Hints:
Blueprint: H1 2-9, E1 16-19, H2 20-32, E2 40-43, H3 52-71
Parallel strand pairs: 1-2
Amino acid sequence: MLDAIELEKRGIPTATIVTEMFFDSGRATAKNLAMPHVPIVSIPHPIANLPPEELKARSEATFPQVLEALTKPRD
């Protein structure tokens, strides 16, 4: 989150990807650092023991959200 926030402050778009378990923590961190609108994309938790095929499927399913986060104009 900290890297994403620093990049966003410099005008560089980011898309932080977290599992659902860490979404609220990421959002709270962004809010506490005065950057509440930093894009965070969540994927289902857990991912640690998934086979490569499942990770690929989740990545592909998340791609539209990541693309939007990187290309949507910031407020």
